[in-house]
Amino acid sequence: MTLCSLRRMIDPHGDRAVYRQLADQLRADIASGEYGPGSAIPSEMTLMQRYGVARNTVRLAMTMLREEGLVVTHHGRGTFVRDSLPIRRIASSRYRQALDAATTGGPLDWAEYRAEASFQEVPATEQIAGLLGVEAGTAVLERRILFFDGSLPQQLSMSYLPLDLVAGTPVAEPRNEPWAGGTVAALASIGVVVTRVDEVVRARMPQPDETRALSVAVGTPMLTITRTMFAGDRAVEAAVDIVVPGDRAELEYRIDLA
Q1: Total number of domains in the chain
Q2: Three-point CA angle 160, 164, 169, nearest 5°
Q3: Are the C-beta atoms of residues 26 and 63 closer than 8 Å to each other?
Q4: Among the listed residues 205, 187, 30, the one whose alpha carbon sits nearest the alpha carbon of residue 102
Q5: Tens digits of per-residue pLDDT, 143-177?
Q6: Would you say residue 257 lies in a domain?
Q7: How far apart are alpha carbons 212 and 129 in whole angstroms?
Q8: Which pairing describes strands 152-162 and 139-149: parallel, antiparallel, or unpaired?
Q9: Residue-range definition of the domain harbouring residue 62
Q10: For a Cys staple, 243 with which of 49, 131, 156, 201, CB 3.0–4.6 Å?
């Protein structure tokens, strides 16, 4: 393709802003594989000359692509197409599998997982009290856990357990994280059998501390899960923010209607 034909892709008199046209072209090049994962995007000067546009036009286009999560910029090195990350499957069946393994002693493959956990006793806020069905101010155990799959951070969770349920038990010890089988297995170890799990899933952009903890690129949306676990009629856990990068996970639900 000649330089002239490349320049004709950018219409300075069109209805669409020039920087958006340039972003469209680069986005198409990334989608086609011309610029594959991890490969460098041409320099500002190269793009200016190739498309006959101003430096600020190039910078605006790159900002747009960064905000979309397609590229990352490393100061002093340049701009690169984001690497493809392994996708973690989060299935609704995971709770049943964890409970079955906890009650039968069956194996769970958690060898690659590790966690950074911090626990503290706090009074329940109105939100937490409402989820747990207790009075505001009731003592609860707050658990902040950052989960890793190998070296890659995968999930950040903030959850709460009634203190009268777990105080003095292994569940209240952060050094025991991650439990193979998660909270279902942890509670089963102290004789609390989870019988129901309610979840609400939303999407939002990350907060600054989540961006740092989960090492996400600008423009990466988060999946957030609010979860309540029950043992019979009693709420035994409230997770107000299970945060998972949207580019590293897929949620899978099976809904039997028969």
Answers
A1: 2
A2: 85
A3: no
A4: 187
A5: 999 999 878 899 999 999 999 999 999 999 999 99
A6: no
A7: 29
A8: antiparallel
A9: 3-81
A10: 156
